[in-house]
Amino acid sequence: MFNFTTLPPLSLYIHVPWCVRKCPYCDFNSHDNHISLPENDYIDALIRDLEQELPLVWGRSIQTIFIGGGTPSLFSAKAYERLFSAIRALLPLNHNAEITLEANPGTIEAERFKEYRDVGINRLSIGIQSFDVDALKALGRIHSDEQAIKAVEYAHDAGFDSFNLDLMFGLPGQDEKKARHDIETAIALAPPHLSYYQLTIEPNTLFYAKPPQLPDDDPIYDWQLANQERLAKAGYQQYETSAYAKAGHQCRHNRNYWQFGDYIGIGAGAHGKITSASPAQIQRRVKQKQPQAYIDTAGIPANLVDQQMITENEVGFEFMLNAMRLLEGVPTPLFQQYAGVPISTISAAMQEAEKLELIEHTIQHIRPTEKGQRYLNSLIELFLNA
User: In CATH, what number is assigned to the domain containing residue 344?
Assistant: First the structure.
């Protein structure tokens, strides 16, 4: 039986499912449509969706908000202002809440960034992916290298002192020189945060059906190490598998995920994880995926298409799947607090991971070793049947 010593922090994830054009590598719930967006209807649906979630989180406050997609920057600042007003009316929102909006360079302009800042969005995540024109074309991106640079300048000019750039490596036609150029260009633009990760081919994508020619894994790993070292010299501390930040600019929303925190998920195809003390349980919830079906059912039971309770046998794997992405790991007592079961339930897997030199474990802390970081999937698999 679960025994939670405290409930985890609570975040809010909001999904906006439309894009100008779906990228061939993207496996997120996104749909081509930027001409006739049902902005008002969708905001109404998000509000109804949130109202339906309220009984699960009475008395808890929202610490962070992340608006992802799709391309959320296709929606106006006025739409988000109305949504935020409704959120504040329904739930306590921390006065210092981190509120992040994903934006793509091909869909924004300087004035819109300022408007987003004025309605309370205080962090951006800008989908650059690369500054190389050939790589952008191969990835199906709608923006140019010049638009990518302009987007970062707009963010600075609009007063965003916290924002992220998404960059990928191991791209079609990429070599060591091009990979280093992306990193050097990013560093010169001085973003407070970088997400830097390898392109992977995911099922249900165009790249999966028609795989592009990618560089070999061995040189990719060498580029990664060299560019990680360059980022460190420039003051970017790696704190998660693919996240690097200047001091004070780690993403609080994503850290909540990795520390097995709770999050409400609203929007088409959104996922949520909610812990409750009475009854003592952890549930995962999934909403209608198709945008029109989501709008039509928001606020009624048919909107919830999947609801699963995490069992006591599964929770150790679920916790470690997230926590071991953090290079610093997590305090050992956090396992009992948020997983709701004693650390002894995964002791056999912990011992095996220590034997393989994949983790370091004391009474105070659990963290992956450098070897564990490199072979993260192997480390996590040890806890699958723990």
Answer: 1.10.10
Total number of domains constituting the chain: 2
> For the chain, what is the largest distance between any 2 Cα atoms, rounded to a whole number of angstroms?
57
Same domain, 55 and 127: yes
Beta bridge partners of 359: 368
The gap from C-alpha 367 to its chain's centroid, in whole angstroms, comes to: 21
Question: Are 67 and 166 part of one and the same domain?
Answer: yes
Rg (CA), the chain: 21
The verdict on residue 266 lying in a domain is no
- Determine, yes or no, domain membership for 279: no
Beta strand pairing call for 330-331 and 359-361: unpaired
Residue 211 lies in a domain: yes
67 three-class SS: strand
Closest to 123 in 3D by CA, of 99, 155, 96, 104: 99
Q: Which domain holds residue 248?
A: 10-256
What is the chain's pLDDT, residue by residue, as a tens digit (386 residues)?
A: 899 989 999 999 999 999 988 888 888 888 887 678 999 999 999 999 999 999 999 989 999 999 999 999 999 999 999 999 999 999 999 999 999 999 988 777 768 899 999 999 999 999 999 999 999 999 998 889 999 999 999 999 999 999 999 999 999 999 999 999 999 999 999 999 999 999 998 998 888 888 899 999 889 999 999 999 999 999 999 999 999 999 999 999 999 999 999 999 999 999 999 999 989 999 999 999 999 999 999 999 999 999 999 999 999 999 999 999 999 999 999 999 999 999 999 999 999 999 999 999 999 999 999 999 999 999 999 999 76
Is the CB of residue 125 less than 8 Å from the CB of residue 166?
Answer: yes
Task: List Cα–Cα distances, 48 to 15, 72, 219, in angstroms.
Answer: 14, 19, 49
> Across the strands, what pairs with 328?
none
